[in-house]
């Protein structure tokens, strides 16, 4: 056996051992994510995607890095699971449509009043009863509807998608940074309880039951508050997208005139 072949064989053995040792990490991450996802998601699909992420991590990890293999693998495993969730969007189109309609009504009310849209007024304008209204909020919270970088007619997307900055052109990088700043500002303008739920869910990574324990309310109520925050953010970010579209159009027009 040549030196090169021997080296490759040792690499494969080392990768296989890392996969065996850290397989429980995949299940742990999968079940942690499941606490924040609707029941329609199959945990076995997440585990399968996570195992692929673990295998890729084992093949690409090199010693001497600052991060441990478990940290490195955890990032790859989680990323593979999120990619799987993005690839298989379980949300019916009707849900996306209703949330878009609700966000537009919220936006209209807030433009007219200069204040946070009131639930009762949103229901009145949509012609919805309380039960249907709360169901749409629950759907908004459990589905990946907050694709704030997507146009209004898009059917979905991942919540708070993280874009690889290295893959962006200079113009795209400026736009992405502008969107992130607008999103941070929009979150900061939410009612206090909605801000807290968003922080506990996305930053602290608590599930709805854990957030309910913190706030002293039921899990279903947390789901509604989360949905209200998502709808409100979608409404407020739509103005930023319209302004961005206008700026892009002016830039294209100016380029043609040169």
From TrEMBL:
Q: Does the keyword Heme apply?
A: no
Q: Which residues bind DNA?
A: 208-227
Task: For the region Sigma-70 factor domain-4, give the residue spans.
Answer: 186-234
Q: Which Pfam families match?
A: Sigma70_r2, Sigma70_r3, Sigma70_r4
The transmembrane segments are none
Please state the protein's primary subcellular location. Answer: cytoplasm
Q: Name one GO cellular component term.
A: cytoplasm
Q: What is this protein called?
A: RNA polymerase sigma factor FliA
Which organism is the protein's source? Dyella japonica A8
Lineage runs:
Bacteria, Pseudomonadati, Pseudomonadota, Gammaproteobacteria, Lysobacterales
């Amino acid at each position: 056996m040549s030196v090169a072949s021997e080296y490759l064989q040792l690499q494969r053995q080392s990768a296989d051992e890392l996969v065996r040792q850290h397989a429980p990490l995949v299940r742990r991450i999968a079940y942690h994510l499941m606490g924040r996802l609707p029941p329609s998601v199959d945990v076995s699909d997440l585990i399968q995607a996570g195992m692929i992420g673990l295998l890729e991590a084992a093949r690409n990890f090199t010693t001497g890095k600052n991060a441990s293999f478990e940290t490195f693998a955890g990032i790859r495993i989680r990323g593979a699971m999120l990619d799987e969730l993005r690839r298989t969007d379980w949300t019916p189109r009707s849900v996306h449509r209703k949330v878009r309609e609700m966000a537009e009504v919220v936006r209209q009310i807030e433009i007219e009043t200069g204040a946070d849209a009131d639930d009762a007024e949103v229901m009145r304008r949509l012609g919805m009863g309380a039960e249907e209204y709360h169901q749409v909020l629950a759907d908004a919270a459990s589905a990946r509807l907050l694709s704030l970088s997507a146009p209004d007619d898009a059917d979905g997307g991942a919540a708070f998608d993280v874009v690889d900055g290295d893959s962006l052109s200079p113009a795209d990088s400026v736009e992405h940074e502008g969107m992130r700043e607008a999103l941070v500002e929009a979150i900061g303008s939410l009612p206090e309880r909605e801000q807290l739920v968003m922080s506990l869910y996305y930053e602290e990574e608590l599930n709805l039951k854990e957030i309910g324990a913190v706030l002293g309310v039921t899990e279903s109520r947390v789901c509604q508050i989360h949905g209200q925050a998502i709808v409100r953010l979608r409404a407020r970010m739509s103005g930023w997208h319209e302004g961005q579209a206008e700026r892009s159009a002016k830039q294209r027009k100016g380029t043609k005139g040169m």
